[in-house]
Amino acid sequence: GLKEIISNGSDGYTVPPGNTKVFVSKIISLIDGQAKIVKMGHKARKKIEEKYASKHMVKKYVTLYKKLLKI
After folding, report:
1. 25-59 pLDDT, tens per residue?
2. Do the beta carbons of residue 13 and residue 6 sit within 8 Å?
3. How far, in Å, CA of 71 to CA of 64, rounded?
4. Phi, psi of 8 (to 5 degrees)
5. Three-state SS for 8?
6. Residue 62 CB neighbours (<10 A)
7. Closest to 5 (Cα-Cα) out of 60, 47, 59
């Protein structure tokens, strides 16, 4: 899920389902803080590139397959 990917407040926000008050407050904080949006966006992109880029995922899958096959 998203909670495993997003570091709340660092590279994005997570909001409990149905909690419109928190959702609205996070949206307003982003509207009021352009610098925050840019900073969060850079952090999010860096995290995705480092953890989920295809070359990293391939390494993880190879490691997993070797473990499962006991190679």
Report:
1. 999 999 988 899 999 999 999 998 888 888 888 98
2. yes
3. 10
4. -55, 120
5. strand
6. 11
7. 47
